[in-house]
Amino acid sequence: MKRFVVDRLVDRENICNLVKEQESLRRYVQRGAKVVVYAPRNYGKTSLIKNVVIEEFRQRHKRCFVFFADLLSVRSLESLTIRLRSAFEHSFAESFPIKNVLENARHFLAALRPELSIDSLTGSPNLSLRVDEDPTGQTIRSIFRHARQIVEELPGLIVLDEFQDIARVEEAPGIFRSCFEEIASAPIIVLGSKRHLLASLFANPEAPLNGWGTDLEFQAIPYDEFHLYIEERFHQNNLTINYENARYLQDLLQRVPEAVNRLGQQIMDIHADREIGREAIAASLVKLLDNRASRYETYLGQFSASEGKVLLILAKQKVVAHPQSKQFLADASLSARAVGQIINRLMDRGVVEKIAPGYRLSDPLLAAYLRHYR
Fold this sequence. Notes:
Elements: H1 19-30, E1 34-38, H2 45-60, E2 65-70, H3 77-95, H4 98-108, E3 114-118, E4 125-129, H5 138-153, E5 156-161, H6 172-181, E6 188-192, H7 195-202, E7 214-217, H8 223-234, E8 239-240, H9 243-252, H10 257-270, E9 274-275, H11 278-291, H12 293-300, H13 305-317, H14 326-332, H15 336-348, E10 352-355, E11 358-361, H16 364-373
Parallel strand pairs: 1-6, 1-7, 2-5, 5-6, 8-9
Antiparallel strand pairs: 3-4, 10-11
Helix pairs in contact: 1-2, 5-6, 8-9, 10-11, 13-16
């Protein structure tokens, strides 16, 4: 069913466009390439990987191994180790039929002392790997050695989401470089949503991962494609929207798919049997912001007064080419050094992003909330 999907992975039918990205990823996976994927948060990259790329890989290979790990917000080698071990356990159990999980675990993972239990509610296998905690990264290397052993015998795919956060973990980039170099027979896809951290990992000449992989960047969905996508879903409520107003809606939310979906659903919750113009779009946006006001106020309370000033100026100006310009510094009543430090902190936290024209808030709904209520 065609719908606006939010708060969960988007199923194949409701992924808007991303046709070029799908085709590129298919080619890369088929030839066993190593790929660095960049897309801002909420652009649909994880949905595309999980519900299209991985799904098609499993359909092509009835017996295969897919190792998927989400590394969002890892802060230490210990937390990275725990995250990878848990992801490996889940991925291994998911890759093999229940009746064969333990047999395969003994074959591939004997050194990790596998233990298998069955979830009493779901009937799904729970695989536990008894490994010693090792902050030096030996456990991580051991996990990837076992992954290498598996993909040497079976078709395999390794996917590491929000990979840029390992930039904050001392020693991690070097560990991953050595792990990746040992895996020659399987495609590896790393995904990230913070361009500057990805650049510090893959573009910095002094970084261990410098030059690794082929880059793939998700582009904004073409206006006409997103217009058709919106119209298809509006049709359920007998709503119509012309191209210019659909383009206005997309620009209002920085062309971020999840934000556009939220507003599209809000419009459908309010309206039926009419053409949607800018007045209805604006009123629906205010309603959406009203519904989320409490969470935004709580969230904004986490920032210092100086950070709040910078956020407000960025929201009101939408895109700022030079946040250390005389005008910006005067508006913020802060020094160039203070603004630079704040921008860097906000980028590291994913609150601010840098695009070609300049800096802006990553969350278009938060930006709209600040413009409307502050």
